[in-house]
Amino acid sequence: MNFKQKILLVEDEEKLARFIELELCHEGYSVTKAFTGRAGYELAASGDFDLILLDIMLPELNGMEVLRRLRRVSSVPVIILTARDEVMDKVAGLDQGAEDYITKPFAIEELLARIRAALRKSPGPESSISDILSSQSVRLDLKRHTATVLETQIELTKREFDLLAYLLKNKNIVVTREMLLENVWEYDFDGGTNAVDVYIRFLRSKIDEVFDIKLIHTVRGVGYVIKDEQL
Predict the structure, then answer these.
(1) pLDDT per residue over 42-84, tens digit each?
(2) Between the CA of residue 76 and those of 50, 119, 143, 145, what are the distances in Å?
(3) Are 38 and 60 in contact (CB under 8 A)?
(4) What does R_g of the chain's alpha carbons equal in angstroms?
(5) CA proximity to 68, closest of 186, 188, 196
(6) Using one digit for the tens of pLDDT, what is the confidence trace for 92-144?
(7) Is the distance from CB of 196 to CB of 222 less than 8 angstroms?
(8) In a 3-state reduction of DSSP, which class is residue 143?
(9) Is the peptide bond before 123 cis (omega within 30 degrees of 0)?
(10) Roughly what angle, to the nearest 10 degrees, separates helices 158-169 and 195-206?
(11) Is the CB of residue 75 less than 8 Å from the CB of residue 143?
């Protein structure tokens, strides 16, 4: 290899994680480990990995939930490591967006072969068109988790990024505050909360005001919309 492909290993069994790490390093990969689901998700969402090995039974956040959240921000290949061999568990993992799964205990040679196969299918470090969301001069890269306006990178918090991504995915569609709370905040709507409005103001202060553009439009009594320039 001319460069080391980077693998994130999310596994709470530290001895097994260390064994896998040593084998992968011996094969020429660069390995980062996480021992909880929450830590694994944070690394996966913000890091630039070529592949993720993800256990299902994890503390803090189980692997299926990590995968579900990750698929909202990244298309990096995921191989599930699981002690469960029930068909429904495997189907659930594949339906959530995993490329493959392997059941514990496994031979390291089989794991290495599955990693090679998943990496061959992967488009590589460059983001695909589906990883890019854009409108006017705003560009969101879901895989690299970066945002640019007029080719200038801007700093967004995780919540701001997720909110902007949801609006861009639904470009030209008016989305209600209830929809935003359910899909970005992931809790039921509380008529007394103004979280959506607050974060819309945050985005406008970083994009609309700084770059003198009109990106996020308010539809009074309904919600918000991002429109294409020509609309």
Answers:
(1) 888 876 788 999 998 899 999 888 988 888 777 788 999 887 6
(2) 6, 10, 7, 12
(3) yes
(4) 20
(5) 186
(6) 777 777 888 888 888 999 999 999 888 887 655 444 445 788 888 898 888 77
(7) no
(8) coil
(9) no
(10) 90
(11) yes
Find tokens 């429904």 and name the residue: 88
**Kind of pairing between the strands at 216-219 and 132-135:** unpaired
Containing H/E element for 54? strand 51-55
Question: Which of 24, 192, 167, 14 is CA-nearest to residue 108?
Answer: 24
The closest alpha carbon to 34, from 7, 70, 72, belongs to 7
**Which two tokens mark 53?**
């090995």
CA distance 68 to 72: 7
3-state secondary structure of 214: coil
Tokens coding 51: 């592949």
Q: Which two tokens stand for residue 83?
A: 């002690």
